[in-house]
Amino acid sequence: MKQETIQAGLSVSVRPHIMVPKRRVAVAAAILMAASAVTATEIDTGSPDVKLRWDNTVKYSTAFRVKGVSAMQTTVGENTVNFDDGDRNFGKGLISNRVDLLSEIDLTYQNVGARVSGAAWHDSVYHRRTDNNSPFTYNAVSVPNSEFARNTRDLHGSKAELLDAFLFAKGEVGDMPGAMRVGRNALVYGETLFFGNNGIAAAQGPIDVVKLQSVPNTQFKELIRPVGQVSGQLQLNAGLSIGGYYQYRWEKSRLPGVGSYFSTADFVDEGGERLFAGVDPVTGQPTGLMRGRDNHASNSGQGGLQIKWTPEGSNVDFGLYAARYHDKLPQFVARPALGEYGLYYAEGILTAGVSATTNIGDVAFGAEASVRHNAPLSVPATTDLFGLVPVSFGGPSAAADNDDNSTFPVGKTAHLNISLLATMPASVIAQEASLAAEIAFNRVTSITRNADMIDPNGQRNAVSLRSVYTPTYRQVRPGLDIDIPIGIGYTHGRSLALGPSFGPDKGGDISIGLNATFESAWYAGLTFTHYYGREATTARLTHAAQNAPQISYNYKQNLKDRDFIAFSVRRAF
Asked: What string of DSSP letters covers 219-235?
């Protein structure tokens, strides 16, 4: 990955569009060195002041399911019918056969420039027949159970997209160094490593959940997706800088398409077409709500500020943050009078936080604490799921919106992330090794609206942790470096603040990989991922007062039977 100093030690960019604190870069660089390499192609422009770079990375990857389909996840019943398609669509064996191209162009003239990047991919698995043998529980209506829904096939099977597209400038305001960007780019505030959804970084942009699940232990800065925004920062003096951004474009996070391998809900998001919500009393066949209009968040009203301060003579960097943003993950709202449902996105979430980082020897420590106001909370779906008439999900929906008239609970939450990046001393295991670890905690401090709609199966407090230990072996053969990342994630608690996305209660995942880098140009990786914890589908049917059916989240391991092996090889040029 290329590294670029943005004026007078203001900060360093590990990726061209992501700013990280300068004190953590030295340790982070050592950890990332063996993970990837990109060889830039310099193009002669005929002028020493004009520099043009064109980087390309071609990647082939494949993955295999190592377990058969679990009966608990797929036995036909009220607790599985809306959560089984991603499981049924893939038998034991091949689940991905994909080719990717990433292309990046950087043009600079003295202190101004532009960056454009794009990606394209093709996965043959999503253009073949599925392994689904249950037509009556298949939620898609546009295709038979032997095919992936069109939107799922488009997302996972064949797609090209624009990523970065921005202009940038570096210079001085008075005698103060500064930098500015305008256009599609990604920005990360705070000190999170893995749990950006639990920190200030949740405000900055949507994330790629598909990548999070298919590439174990991916750091958060590699998951965030670029959006249209104006951002800048200014170095007021040697120890004090300010920064800010305003987003003129809202985009949702990328979730696994319905029926794709990591999909666990058959009606959210791309490819979602129907929710089974009843049984026809005459035919005995399932009936349902059809996917209607989604209520996307506004393109306006999102922005934030940060202040970074290093006291003179201190080894500690402090940060202050404030932001207003719209949620990138959806809330489910039914419109039973119309026989449909839609996805809604909470607006006007306010967050503020503080951070501190320091180095002690070869270890970089980071801590970040934040609070949120008007944050969406975990909500169950209430309906007469297998009765005759569907009623409501989360309350009356006739005038539902993303803000004051929401049909989901909102409240105040508190969040804490503590992380470390370390280069380890030589040992009998390896002469060189690294450790990246983070623990994240959240708590619902109050419910300010729609308290009666809160998920009764959730808890106010929850904690997650993730660590990756990576021994590295240099020059195993001339030009060949090997590393073996070993990662583990674990969650305790059923988070009302973030819902099941925070992790399965008393469960998680374990992965072990074997990565090889040859002459800083070729990269190959082999990884096995195992999911552990008590097994259950995403949600379950319960009965509230007057025997009213209600769907509440299980907060258990819904990927228990989806252990997989992944292999990839890529070449940068």
From this structure: -GGGTBPPEEEEEEEEE
- What is the spatial distance between Cα 231 and Cα 469, in angstroms, rounded to a whole number? 34
DSSP label of 139: -
In 16-80, the DSSP E strands lie at 18-20, 41-43, 50-65
- Please list, in sequence order, all residues whose beta carbon lies within 8 angstroms of the beta carbon of residue 313, skipping any fewer than 6 positions away: none
> Which domain does 27 fall in, by range?
4-572
The tally of domains found in the chain comes to 1
* pTM of the predicted structure, to 2 decimals: 0.88
Does the pLDDT value for residue 13 go beyond 60?
no
**Does the pLDDT value for residue 533 go beyond 60?**
yes
Alpha helices in 238-342 (DSSP H): none
| Two tokens, residue 503 | 């992790």
286-291, strands of its sheet edge to edge: 274-279, 286-291, 340-344, 331-335
Q: What is the pLDDT of residue 393?
A: 40
Q: In 10 A of CB 9, how many CB atoms?
A: 12
**What Cα–Cα distance (Å) separates residue 506 from each residue in 198, 395, 481?**
18, 31, 36
Q: 274-308: per-residue pLDDT in tens? A: 998 766 667 666 678 899 999 999 999 999 999 99
Torsion angle of C-alpha atoms 369, 374, 377, 381, degrees rounded to 10: -170
CB count within 10 Å of CB 80 equals 23
Residue carrying the six token digits 């975990």: 378
In this structure, which amino acid lies at residue 227? V
- Name the region of 376 (left: φ>0; alpha: ψ -120 to 50; beta: rest): beta
User: How much is the CA Rg of the chain, to the nearest whole Å?
Assistant: 24
| Contact predicate 267/223, CB 8 Å | no
CA distance 68 to 254: 27
Length in residues, the chain: 573
Residue 262 neighbours by CB under 8 Å, 6+ apart: 86, 210, 213, 214, 256, 559, 562
Q: Is 373 helix (H, G, I), strand (E, B) or coil?
A: strand
* Residue 142: Cβ-neighbour burial (10 angstroms; 0-12, 13-18, 19+): exposed
Are 142 and 149 within 8 A, CB to CB? yes
Token pair, residue 298, equals 């506004």
Nearby residues of 8 by Cβ (< 8 Å), 6 or more positions away: 177, 235
Torsion of CA 269, 270, 273, 279, to 10 degrees: -40
Closest C-alpha among 421, 462, 465 to residue 439 = 465
* DSSP per-residue string spanning 533-573: S-B--SEEEEE-GGG-EEEEE--SBTTTT--EEEEEEEEE-
The CA distance from 127 to 429, in Å, is 44
86: left (phi over 0), alpha (psi -120 to 50) or beta: alpha
Q: Are 390 and 340 in contact (CB under 8 A)?
A: no
